[in-house]
Amino acid sequence: MKVNLEDLNAFVAVARAKGFREGARASGSSASALSEAVRRLEAQLGVRLFNRTTRSVVPTEAGEGLLARLSPALSEMEAALDVVNGFRDRPAGTLRLNVPVSAARLVLGSIVPPFLAAYPDIQLEIFTEDSFVDVIAAGCDAGIRYDERLEQDMIAVPIGPRVQRFAAAASPAYLDRRGRPEHPRELLGHACLRGRFSSGSMPPWEFERNGETVRVEPTGPLIVQAGGGADLAVEVAIAGSGIVYLFEDWLRPHLDSGALEPVLEPWWPHFSGPFLYYPGRRLVPAPLRAFIDFIKAPAGHP
User: Fold this and answer.
1) Under a CB-based contact definition with an 8 Å cutoff, are residues 16 and 68 in contact?
2) How far apart are CA 105 and CA 231, in angstroms?
3) Rounded distance, CA 156 to CA 146, Å?
């Protein structure tokens, strides 16, 4: 039986992502194209490969069996093609990275332009995701996360600043009106602008000084989605509505301009910088290898 390879790739993309829309995002296709490819494959094989509902797309027993046999074969095919890629003067192909919004904003901005200039035959796709995901299931080659969120079987390479700080800040007008906190617990009496992750968790604000760590869960008039809603929280803080707690580098331009004033600066906690991570059990594709070599090179030059 002769089956279209693109239809098989469409099936794997949907099965790994557990949905047509998610599979389309990971594969760079459209949901309708994937749906048509899967229908075509099912018709040719004469079996249903997915159980579809309005809320989920789950492989049938036949689909699970096909996925188990196909995944290694497709990985081997990708590896074989990548070996040929290694003989090119310049690596080519697509590199897909799954990164948090903070990394896209604070880390990649200084890396991506020179990388693209050095490797014009590589197309870079960035997917921003603040919840932890399986990069392979999401159709990505690698991701960026902080060390506390890395899985043990991943290879991690430092990327970006090695030390960062969280910072609290508010507008001078707000602090003139409500007072300037001298201890983190005083934040419980202030209007604080919080962030909530897509998982529903709303992490406490953490501060440290001279070996003492203080975690507080203040309240306030605004809760935004962590990452994507951070810019709104900053603008609301600049307008004088409360105190914001965010990466220092994110707030730095507003601190330097005077639009925001540091709050509890001696208590700002340090933490280690992010890592590029990828599965150690797979052959590293040429575009990813080029990116790894680029970020390891002195001054970001290959």
Assistant:
1) no
2) 11
3) 10
* CA distances in angstroms from 106 to 111, 113, 229, 300, listed in the order given: 10, 14, 15, 16
The matching CATH number, chosen from 2.60.40.420, 3.30.420.40, 3.40.190.290, 3.50.50.60, for 163-270 is 3.40.190.290
- pLDDT tens-digit readout, 269-282: 999 999 999 887 66
CB proximity list for 295: less than 8 A, separation 6 or greater: 111, 157, 158, 159, 276
Query: 9 near 27, Cβ under 8 Å?
Result: yes
Q: Give the bridge partners for 178, in sequence order.
A: none
Confirm if 7 and 39 have CB atoms less than 8 A apart: no
pLDDT digits (tens, 9 = 90+) for 204-227: 999 999 999 999 999 999 999 988
Element (H, E) at 34: helix 31-45
**Residue 271, pLDDT score:** 92
**CA–CA separation, 60 vs 49, rounded Å?**
5
| CATH for the stretch 93-160+273-300 | 3.40.190.10
- Whether the CB-CB separation of 6 and 34 falls below 8 Å is answered with no
Q: pTM, whole model, 2 decimals? A: 0.70
